[in-house]
Structure formats: structure tokens, C-alpha cells
């Protein structure tokens, strides 16, 4: 690391004056980061690119304004010496990103289809192409221009104006290409980018989607600029009175001459007030980069935690010859984190991690999540009382980490593969460089349950990865998520923290702690309870799993029970429940017709299952009494029935039609069960604390479906073509009670500047298309997602269904 010498400090002091007198000018070459998501064209299927196209002697490929000349999919033909032309397939369709073509497909029950049809949800993947035409003004000549893909699933190849820019295998790490030299500026012509994504191979055992499913950015900077992921902010000393801030900035000079540079780093609080400014000067040779270290401070820092997600920023200015030529913003937080043999300590206090494991997808949209949907999912997690998010089993989209910073959720950021190959280390280091400034990240996970865990080779690979991680981010510990039994052979010894998946089995983690008292343990994964929302019997034909009993798989406890271990053995640090939401693929315990998993305590739409309340009871102080099943059992009058209850009250009293059936003392984190004789009517559970009723839970026999209810999470959208309203659709009886068995088909129509981008209902056996304007309700509910367009106005969504009273809502797009 480059240190600033005494001489530099003197120079700096004089520059403070200069700076104070505002002599440094801002010029037009400041960094621009443009969203590049709109107006792409998409072609599903392969296109035979016969040659690796290079720039031809006549200036390369000209592929604008050419016609389709063949019916074949061939796009590149040799035309004449030194130049190529691209002929498009006729079926390019207009798309905006993020885009996942797999979720647009039809479910196929064909085990010979592609790879792992069941685990990826029986949706075909294959290969697809994207292209986009764009113009770059003459005035951008001389700048550095690059493109950043936050994530393409997967094996992507990029050409710009016919020049092969490169190939990127990972479906989860970002890729970046420097386009400066191959672009056409001003009158030189239009630019064309072509992206191939080959999703026919898989990286995991869950639905992974297909296509450019995260954002794309076009980045323009001066030739003297902050390097990609070029800042690293840490707070090596934190006290109530003061936090020391260590700022490391990597600058890149891509001019042909040496540059005398001044680096200004301003620490800014959440009100935008500059609270410290550090200035350094140096000289940076042509085509080279340099890391500059600066030290700042914050008086009386506001600490970051999930409960108080206070953030600061470092604003970086690169000054060349009195001009600010580049600006860069890094968000950071002030907090201490220690995962040690006694547990997880945040800001010096034991902080039990109430976490969930999460795959990326959501109803209606596959893995192509508008930011709003990531925000919505996190909001639901906060509501259940969770304070932590595990990105299983790969790094997430960067916006999600920004949200975890600002909404307050700790993150276990996970690398995809156990690999120390060049490619493997590149993926790992990309995650570390991209993400290490986020205060939300409390630990790095090297991998999850790879088969060579615990082997000699696995151990060597892991050791290299851990060492690499320590070098790039010495402030956080490294773990790996392991099935118990795979952690021997020295594998655990090279980790800072030994991650236990399902360590509750015969209390494996507790036994290990007795054996290795110095071991730092963490519960990386638990539960895997399977259930289908609103179902109370297993049904192989329809692929439903009852919420009442524990059947499969054999490796996890009932919802909430995992938390009892964390309370009893705080050294376990916390847990990450498998999973918060159902996800496509991995349909354990069934195969076809099941197309989604059953592991979530919410379904794929975010509707709570019964297990949700076990966690709400365990993780919040809000009094919870949740009884199930529902109370619509025609024909079962006089039969015996079990009533189950999740609660955090001390005692629960059950009343059927006003008559007490008795009280039970609650055992924390354990389900209560009553047996009674079924009679329609109203079943009520009263939750007592200190002898007083603090809350009640009710299930009631309803009459037939009579009306539709639409409930949007917002009635105002930004008219930006990105924002989304999440609309919960409920089928209710004449008295406004949700009918828990209703499966009416609801048809949606929309007027105004909004688009239905997907539907869902949480039924793991549903083969209805998600990309449609109708959906059957499943056990009373379905979901519709409405996205704004780039136009302000009133969006009216109407819902109709045979024999039901129709309804409509209005959402205003504009602010
Ligand atoms: C774990 C694994 C997860 C998921 C889960 C299902 O062992 O890490 O990815 O497969 O099992 O129970």
C-alpha cells in the first residue's frame, strides 16, 4: 500500500487552502453511470456464429440497417475481404432488462431435457442472444467507456461492433468490458452490442434462470479515474467517541503521460454534511495504477446495526491540474463485528443472528427481479423479525446489498464454488472486491456443501481460498457451509468459523463444541421443513405437503425449533433457516408435477405459510397466536381434528364457538396441539401473558366465494419503467372472509401506463404460465405484479372471475 510521506502531507495542507477557496473546477468529464437496461432485442435459440469475428480491415462489422436475407439463424456471413455482415434471425423481440427467458417458457415433463429438469423446475433453458443499438456522442471521445453486466446466466460472450470482447462463465459474478477502442463516436456510426448467453449448463441444484437477468451499466470516466471496485473503507478503531476510518483508493491512469494527481476523500454523514476531508497528492505514471491510503475520522459515530442502519459515505474526487476529473461514491458503515467461540458480537454485544437462506427468484418473474421486488422480499423478512440474509449459494445482485445496508439486515455473502483454479479465484476475488465495503456483510462463505469437503484436496483448495479472502478483506472471517460429517480431514481447521448445516441432528454441533472447545461455530443452515401453503394433507398427485406433520426430508426440525438451540447454546451464533421463500426447482419430496420447492416459510409469492408464525413468535416481541388448519371441513362434522398453534405467549386457551376447550402452557419454540371434535363455526385461541389476554388467533368457517379483493403494497409508482406494485389477490366470501380453499380463476385487465409482468399463486403443482394476465387462486390467494412504464398516469387494474363480484384498483404512476 502506498503511504503518504511528510512532504506529501505539507503539499496536502496547502491544497486544503486551494480547495477551500474553490479553485478546483468541476469539468464535464465526471463519471457517468448510465442504466443500460432498456430497448434490447432478444432471440431465443442458438445462432451459428461461424467465425470468431475480429475487426476487419475495412473497419469491422457493419450490422446496422441490414435486412434478414436468409430464413436460417445464421447471422454472420463472410461478405468481402476484411469485413463481415451480420444478418439477424427474423424473430428478435423487444425486451427490457432484467430478463429471464426461462420463466417465459412452458413446463416440460421430459427427463431427457437439458440438465436436471426437476431441480430447475422443469423449465427449459438453452441458449439466447441479446442485441442493442446505441449511439455514443462525439463528445465522449477520449473518455474510458466500459460496460458492466451485474449478472448473466450464464456462459456469456459479448461482441461490440463485431469485435469479440470476451467470455464469462459464471452466472453470478459480474463481468466488465472496456469498449473505449471499439466504439463508434458521433458520425462514425451506430454501435451494436451482441450478447450470447448459454444457459444449457447449470451451476446449482435450484432454478437459476436464463439470460441477462440483472442490471447493465454503461460507465464513462476520464482516463484518470478510480479503478473498478477501487475503494476499500474500513473502520479499524471504533469507540463511542470516535471512529478511525481507513480509506484505500486505487487510481488508474490510462493517459499516455504521467499525471500529477490529487486525491480528495470526503467523509459525509447521512445528512450530506462533510465531516472530514483528506487530501493526498502523487504522481501516477502512464498506463499504471496506484493504491493510496488515507486516514480519516468520525467523531461520535452513529453505529450501524440492523436496528440502526446508519450509513456514511466517502466521496472521492480525483483532481488533475485543478480539475475534478472523476468522482466516486462509497457507502460504508461504522460497526464492529466479531464471530468468536462465544457467538456473534455486533458492536461489542452478543447478537444472535436470526437469518434465512434465500435463492433469488420470485413469482411471475423468475430471477429477473426489478429492484422493487428485492426490496419487497427484504421487507417481508424484516416483518417476520429476521435480522440476517444468507445469499445461498452465490453472491447476490449488488442492489440487494445496498438494501441490506440501508434496511438493516446482516448478510452472509456466499461464493459459488469450492475452487482455487484461476477462474475460481477470479470469481471469489470479484465477490470480495465488489462487496467488501458493505457494512451488512458480517462474514464470507467460501462455499456450500461441495462434495469434496473434508477431503485432502478440498482442504488444500479451501486453504488457498481462505488465504485469498484474508488478503483482500482482513476485517471479516471466512466460513464454509458444511453438512456435519464432511468437516473432518483438516477441512474445519483451515476455516475461521466452522459452518454447520443441520448441526441440530443428534446435536452434532454441541458434541463438536465439547470435543473442540476452541472451535468457532456457526449454524449456516437449518430446518428444511417442507409444506404447501394452506394444505393439511399430503397429496402425491398434486404435489402438496401438509403443514401439520413432519414427513420429509429427514434432516431438519419443525419450524422454530431450531431457534431453541440458538437460545440454549449462544455460541452457535445464530441460524439461517432453509428457506424464507419457496423457489422454483428442487421440488423435494416430489418430482413432476411439482415445479417449485416446498421449503419456504412463505410461498413463492411471499404469502405466509403456518411455519412463518413459528419464526415471528421466536424472533419478535409482538404477541403471536397462530392456529391451523383452517376451519372449512364440510362433511367432517363430528370427526376428530387436531388443532396446532405457534405462539410466544405463556398460555393459550382454545375456544370453539365461544366454549372453552381448555388452556395449555406454552413451551417456547414448540408447537402446541389440541385434539377436538370438528364443528363448523369459529375457533379462537387466546394468548395470555401474566394472566392477561394479549392477542387472539381466529379461524372461521366461511361461506362460498363471493368477491375478489385486490390489495396493492403501494398505490403510487415511479413512472420509470422499473417500479412495481405487488398486488395480493384474495377470494372472499360474502362477509369479507378469505375462503381458504378457493381456487377461482381470476382474469386481470389493465388500462393506463402499466404492464402486468407476472402472476403467481404459490401452488407447487401449478403449470399455468407466470407470464399471463390470469391466474387461478390457490387456497384463497394469488398475486399479480404491475410495472410502471416511462409515462405518468393512472393505472387501473381490474380483476374478474365467474360468479364473483369484480373489483378494480387505481395506482398512480408519476412521482
Ligand atoms: C441443503 C442444501 C440446500 C438445499 C437444502 C434442502 O443441504 O445446502 O441447498 O438443498 O439442503 O434441504
UniProtKB/TrEMBL annotation:
One term of GO molecular function: hydrolase activity, hydrolyzing O-glycosyl compounds
Alphabetical list of InterPro entries matching this protein: Beta-gal/glucu_dom_sf, DUF4982, GalA-like, Galactose-bd-like_sf, GH, GH2_Domain-Containing, Glyco_hydro2_dom5, Glyco_hydro_2
GO process annotations (BP): carbohydrate metabolic process
Residue span(s) of domain Glycoside hydrolase family 2 immunoglobulin-like beta-sandwich: 232-335
Keyword entries, A-Z: Glycosidase, Hydrolase
Keyword Hydrolase: yes
Every Glycoside hydrolase family 2 catalytic domain range: 338-483
Domain Glycoside hydrolase family: 708-810
Pfam families per the UniProt record, alphabetical: DUF4982, Glyco_hydro2_C5, Glyco_hydro_2, Glyco_hydro_2_C, Glyco_hydro_2_N
Domain of life, source organism: Bacteria
Residues in DUF4982 domain copies: 638-694
Domain Glycosyl hydrolases family 2 sugar binding: 116-221
NCBIfam families for the chain: GalA
Family indicated by similarity: Belongs to the glycosyl hydrolase 2 family.
Protein name: Glycoside hydrolase family 2 protein
